[in-house]
Amino acid sequence: MQQSSMQFSFQPGFTAVNVGWDDTTGAIGHIVLNRPTKSNAFDSVMWREFPAAVRLLQQRHEIRVLVISAAGKNFCAGLDLAYLTDTFGSKMQQQPGNSSSCPARMHYAFREEILQMQVGRASCSPSLLSPSHYR
Questions:
Q1: 8-39: per-residue pLDDT in tens?
Q2: What number of CA atoms fall less than 13 Å from residue 87's CA on the CB side?
Q3: How many Cβ atoms from other residues are within 10 Å of residue 129's Cβ?
Q4: CA distance 68 to 65
């Protein structure tokens, strides 16, 4: 497949994603998942940045298409298991004598964190999303 010669202006302030739009018409937005060493798995930073990138592009009313691609050989491995373990592993450990060691409370906290991540993803307009990863 032939690579496009289109040039994109990427915006500063993002680390886990690159976000920008084409320089000619401004009608094509582009988000690049940028954690290739982790197969672009979502961690807390990417969960915050991805919806912020979409909101930034949604503010540019001339954008009609959003292309989502990824750095590296994999598009996205899903949720970063290391992040999951680091974030929730300590919450899921029962500690005798600790009221927060209640399994129901730990599972509820885990569920709430996942729901917050999903709310960020749900804030992205589905009509604007077009995943793409080709080599």
A1: 778 889 999 999 998 888 888 999 999 999 99
A2: 18
A3: 13
A4: 10
